[in-house]
Amino acid sequence: MTDLILSNYNYWVYVVLIMIGFYGMMAKNNLMKKLIGMNIFQWSIILFYISIGAKKGGTIPVVDPSLHPAIRALDYVNPLPHVLMLTAIVVGVATTGIALTLLILIYRKYGTLEEDEILEALKK
Amino acid sequence: MMLHFPVLLVVVPLVMSFFIFVFGLFQRRICFPLTLVTLAACLLFAGGSFWTVLSTGQPVHYHLGAWAPPWGIEYVVDHLNGLVLVGLAIVALLAAIYAKTMVEREIPVAKHAPFYALYMLQATGLFGMTVTGDMFNLYVLLEIASFSAYALIGMGEGAAPFAAFRYMIFGTLGACAYLLGVGYLYIITGSLNMADLQQILTPLYQSQVVSVGFAFLLVGTGVKMAYFPVHTWLPDSYTLAPSSVSVLLAPLFTKVGAYVLIRILFTVFDPSFSTTLLPATQVLGWIAVAGILFSSIMALAQTDLKRMLCYLIVTEIGYIGIGVASGNRLGLTGSIFHILNDMFMMAGLFMTAGAIQAHFRTRKTDEFAGLHRKMPVTSAVLVIAGLSVIGVPPTCGFFSKWYLLLGTIQAEQWVFMGTLLLGSLLNAILFFRIFERSYFEPRPDPPHLGREPGTRFERAAMSELVPMILTAAFIILLGLFSGYIVQYSIAYAVPKGF
What we know:
The complex is a heterodimer of chains A (about 120) and B (about 500). Helices cover about 70% and strands about 0% of the residues of chain A. Chain A is built from five helices and no strands. Chain A has a single domain (about 1-60, about 75-125), classed as Helix Hairpins. Chain B is mainly α and about 500 residues long. Chain B is built from 20 helices and two strands. A two-stranded antiparallel ribbon of chain B has the order 1-2. The interface of A and B includes residues 99 and 110 of A.
């Protein structure tokens, strides 16, 4: 059991992080904390993708025939998931930007970021 | 030139959103014409691609940067998404025309340029999601569409920023679930291309990784299309959004989500997998039953017209789910046809809701007495679109519901059939209540109009009436020509294996 955890520790970290993020998004009352939870959620998925592409003992995926006459796929890290995550990082940054803008608007209007206080103000 | 139509559909609005923003900083008046021209060009691209598909009977494949799939990104137009694309382009164009006066009324002058830039970005995302044949590309375009939706909704009245933030939390959860699903499928197949995935996945259907990926994909798409238990973001955000925004988002976004669901269930995965091996369609069907009943009753309880329409969207998504759950040719024909019809029905309804709010100064259905006298065209469009939602014969809503009903009968799913009928009945109660108030309530002058000095009744502008009338005309024309649409397009769009 410990072997299973230790050999794939990056996946376990991903699972733990995604749970922390999910808890933050769902259970926290402060909207800023919700946003932080959302960010943790997104970054954990990036860790997941990076783990897919990584290989133990693998090198950068630039093929040089003079160094490696026979190309073995096992020697090279898979670059595609990493490239995909560049896009996902941009998406994450954009999300955070829009969310912060909305939070500023909300704060200006209600003077608070606590969800229950905003709901209270909306009922009036 | 014709060759490049699929990619131009995404690239042109994307580039134009940048130019509209920059030009708009100097000359505000240029934004609207540029938006209109771009969307008209998109209609040309969508129509051109669809015409090629119809005339040759073959899907159009476009390889970005001439990289052959599965390595490069591929854009595909076939009978299924060609139809959706043309519907999208028409409704987006009509919504843009309608938005002209609404924007001037609702959005501060300084924000017109960013508004139209976001509008274009929204169109980019919706067209892209429909045209792409690559799973990850779909995620990126889904997020482009979602971001512009969050920002556009945030411009609305009252608590709109709060509603947009809640929508964002939910939407990001959905998008992340979708991304995880793509990741799991990538682990086991090493491919992102939809057609390629189907071939590689077929021998792997027993694998747990595939099941997990499939589940994540369905949850993610479900959130984005407002499928019943995860629809909670929709009513608030679409109600509080500006009318010019809700008229674009409400008809289109959820329908594109429904299209993506059908793609995942029946193109990425084989119909045999989705219906029998892992009976996801059955589960979706039973959830849809609960969703239709819940949201129909919630719609009945609303006094705000726009909020009522928002619950109606959830109901309509439920109908599409029931067609998918029937798991046969007739049911799926109904679902695909309903995606197209619902775009026009919801566009018509949200256009009338916006116009009534702007000119009749109320959204409360209790205060609609005398509406038809003040706004005859608007209330006529409301009646046509409403009858179509109920499913009264000459309108298109009848025909898609007819196919859905035949599908449930063929599948011998009597509960699904009963829900369809009951849902239509509840919709009928809903709309006839409004019709009665606006046409037959014996009160000559609406009490809230003209009471305050200086508030004169202002007639709806031509740019609002023309798109409304055209939408109503489309609702009837789609009904009259439903035979042709089913025969020449949807018959080929239903996936192989049915």
